[in-house]
Amino acid sequence: MSLVDALPPWAAVLVGVLVLLGAGFACVGSLGLLRLRDFYQRVHAPTLGSTLGTFFMVAACVAGFSLAQGRPALQVLLIGVFLTLTTPITLMLLVRAALYRDRVEDGRQMPPPAPGDEG
Amino acid sequence: MSHAFLGAALVIAQLLLVLGMACALLRMLRGPRAQDRVLALDAFYVNAMLLLLAVGLRSDSVLYVESAMIIALLGFAGTLAFAKFLLRGEVIE
């Protein structure tokens, strides 16, 4: 007996809506990654997947596993906490690297480094 | 009825996530500069992790959640190492 059959009807609808929302946000974020023009625009798009997409998918997993097994399944929350902590670190470091490369190599008109910022 | 909706929603969600992975892969192949490719790799592993969660829901196994957590951990370390390389590798050249 799989999880899909073990859930009560209202919970099945709830989990289905949450899963669809999470996957939809992640897909829209990746489409934006493909379609936007500049790196500094593109860096905004995948955060849709790693914040809202992950939130809805983790909520769906917690609701689904908890209601199907009859006891709270909270280990999925760790993924949400971990991704919320690490995504800003990664992307800020990546944008710093991109700014550095653009200043050094391209000679594009980039804003100068802020005072006290080693970039 | 509602169980059929959940089954269909899980399949559609998996298809959407595979589409997202394809978009990220295309950006990784195309991306004009190295930082675009690293950003695409980051989006790729986040999508793959969400896909593993959806597969875990569909097959009622918490094991997939553990592997999704490992993907999140290792993907973070990988992207961080790439960003650090882009920042420091140029200093030496």
From TrEMBL, chain B:
Stated family: Belongs to the CPA3 antiporters (TC 2.A.63) subunit F family.
Signal sequence annotation: none
Coiled-coil stretches noted in the UniProt entry, renumbered to this chain: none
Keywords: Antiport, Cell membrane, Ion transport, Membrane, Transmembrane, Transmembrane helix, Transport
Compartmental location: Cell membrane
Top-level taxonomy: Bacteria, Pseudomonadati, Pseudomonadota, Gammaproteobacteria, Lysobacterales
Domain of life the protein comes from: Bacteria
Entry-linked Pfam families: MrpF_PhaF
Membrane topology: Multi-pass membrane protein
Sequence intervals crossing the membrane: 6-26, 38-57, 63-87
Database matches in InterPro entries: MrpF/PhaF-like
This protein's name: K+/H+ antiporter subunit F
